[in-house]
Amino acid sequence: MGEKAYFQPLTREDRITVILYRAGIFLSTLVIAICGYLALEVGRGDPEAYPWVASGLTLNVLLLILYFGVGLSVFFIHLYVGKFHRILKKIYYVAVGCLAVLFLIGNGNPVIPLFRTPPISSLLLIPISLCLGFVTAKEAFCFRLFEGYLLAVIMPAYLFFYAVGALSPGAAIFGLMLIAVMLFFFMLRKIFMPVAFDIGDKSAYQP
Questions:
Q1: Distance, CA of 21 to CA of 136 (rounded, Å)
Q2: Is the peptide bond before 118 cis (omega within 30 degrees of 0)?
């Protein structure tokens, strides 16, 4: 994409798909921002944050919303090259399979395995981070949102180093907060763009 010209009138479907795509970016950012805030408060020893984290329910809901949000962006992204979209959807299917594995090993509580020592199960989140990273990198390529390139690299790298226990608790919190801040900045720059920017020239789309 990356077209800032108006090539054709937008249809209702065009507008809906762009709204859903950007809603996915917003939801994904919101979830990661909330998780970063909770991690920061727990790290500071705030007793009010512990019940939200210890119950597991809050984090489970946030995890499901994250997958839903990323899924919206994956399925409603506008790409000229159809092959790239098919590959992206396949990665998302793998991510959903990994979520199912988290449910199994967590006995219905998928966030529990993410906090074991070492939290090797966090590797199962890498596919979903790759999906979100594809979205941010696509926007970086198309609209010079250069933080998108950084996010595409940092998110899976962060999960890998966290999973193998290479990050101290403080470093893990800092890394999550850094990702959340970058995503928030990225989201603000993206969601207020004109809708037509995401559609581009529909005659150039490849099956």
A1: 12
A2: yes
SS3 32: helix
Say whether the peptide bond before residue 169 is cis (omega within 30 degrees of 0).
no
Taking the model in full, what pTM does it have? 0.92
Closest CA to 34 of 9, 66, 71: 66
Find the radius of gyration of the CA atoms of the chain.
Answer: 18
State how far the Cα of 43 lies from the Cα of 177, in Å rounded to an integer.
Answer: 12
Q: CA quadruple 132, 64, 112, 49: dihedral positive or negative?
A: positive
Query: Does 174 have pLDDT greater than 90?
Result: yes
The per-residue DSSP string of 45-86 comes to T-TTTHHHHHTSHHHHHHHHHHHHHHHHHHHH---S-HHHHH
Whether the CB-CB separation of 178 and 202 falls below 8 Å is answered with no
